[in-house]
Amino acid sequence: TTIALTAMAINAMGGKAVSLTGAQAGIETDGVHTKARISNITPNEVHRLLDDGFIVILAGFQGKTSDGKITTLGRGGSDLTAIAMAAAIDATLCQIFTDVDGVYTCDPRVVPEAKKIDEISYDELLEMASSGTKVMQSRSVEFAKKFGVPFEVRSSLNQNPGTLVKEETMSMESVVIRGVSLERDQAKVTISGVEDHPGTARMIFGAVAEANLLVDMIVQNVSKTGITDISFTVHRDDVEKAEAALNPVLSGLGENISLESESGIAKLSVVGIGMRSHSGVAAQMFAALSDAEVNIQMISTSEIKITVTVAENDIDAAAKAVHESFGLGDA
To answer: Has residue 39 been placed in a domain?
Structure first.
């Protein structure tokens, strides 16, 4: 209905518009309803209409299977539709209109001094999206990176330029930290007394995987006596499911096994491709947290990201301290 009304409104203004469903536009998906993945796009009809001078209004969030059944793409599906179609028709730029001006150095509701980022690489936005930044879903950014689609995240409420997301360039490495992300409502699950031999991690995370639970950070202590502890984080709502999945396998992990969980934690991440060529980022982050009297519980790193868990009550103070330490609020 919305696409048809939009096309009618444009036509009433003197334009030349037509609306298409995802199926009519040639978007083909797998058969996983509500979370379908795009498998192919045949944009012949879109090309024909564009060549004839039409403005094409495309329904997001949907497609069809190879046998013609309608599917939906799940969370972030409308953004994914836009980027996928931009790739299919070889567009020079895809614009994603939302309710914010772009991607910020941190959540402005937490850090009022946060600044809009003019440009950011696919990898940096992927890391920020997976660490709590809600502007874009990871799968849309992954698709854009895979097919080399530059896109701009900008506001539909004003004419301000947004944030351009594109392949990284050499000049981008001059910025050490691009942004700070935070994610609340996390929980830590710890299995203590695990016998340190091959197969234990497989038993633990195999059971978690069978329960369809998403695990983020994983930390295993160094074993000096043949006994170790393994901790991992999940969303707070998944703690009971994780415990239920692990209880049946605990007896096979050691004689003095204990299972504990702790809610009320949050994740804080700093992201930047400049980490590849600059040292001391972790030391600076940890110093800022120490000065703010924020205790670090767990640490995880990737090539361009450092993530720590802290008490959820401390996350706002932690974000402000780290943001200020790296000068992200400077004009």
So the answer is: yes
Query: Which ranges of 27-185 does DSSP label H, i.e. alpha helix?
Result: 44-51, 77-88, 122-130, 138-147
Q: What is the pLDDT of residues 9-47, one digit of tens each?
A: 999 999 999 999 999 999 999 988 888 889 999 999 999
Question: How many angstroms separate the CA atoms of 189 and 243, rounded?
Answer: 8
Helix%, strand%, coil% for the chain, nearest 5: 35, 30, 35
Strand order in the sheet with 227-235: 218-220, 227-235, 179-195, 258-271, 305-311, 298-302
Q: Rounded to two decimals, what is the model's pTM?
A: 0.86
- Chain centroid to Cα 265, Å, comes to 19
For 165-209, the pLDDT digits (tens) are: 999 988 888 889 999 999 999 999 999 998 888 889 999 999 999
Spell out the residues 6+ positions from residue 256 whose beta carbon is closer than 8 angstroms to its own.
193, 227
Containing structural domain, residue 86: 2-170
Identify whether the C-beta of residue 187 lies closer than 8 Å to the C-beta of residue 213: no
CATH number of the domain bearing residue 133: 3.40.1160.10
Let me know: does 102 contact 157? Beta carbons within 8 Å: no
What are the Cα distances from residue 198, in Å, to 50, 70, 195, 203, 253? 59, 45, 9, 10, 11
Number of domains observed in the structure of the chain:
1
Alpha helices for 54-147 (secondary structure H)? 77-88, 122-130, 138-147
**Angle (CA) 293 108 218, round 5°:** 55
The type of residue at 202 is: R
Q: Are 80 and 143 in contact (CB under 8 A)?
A: yes
Q: Does some domain include residue 193?
A: no
Q: Which residues of the chain have pLDDT under 70?
A: 331
Question: pLDDT value at position 189?
Answer: 95
Q: How far is CA 110 from its chain centroid?
A: 19
| pLDDT at res. 331 | 53
Query: Pairing between strand 218-220 and 27-29?
Result: unpaired
Residues 6+ positions from 52 with CB-CB distance below 8 Å = none
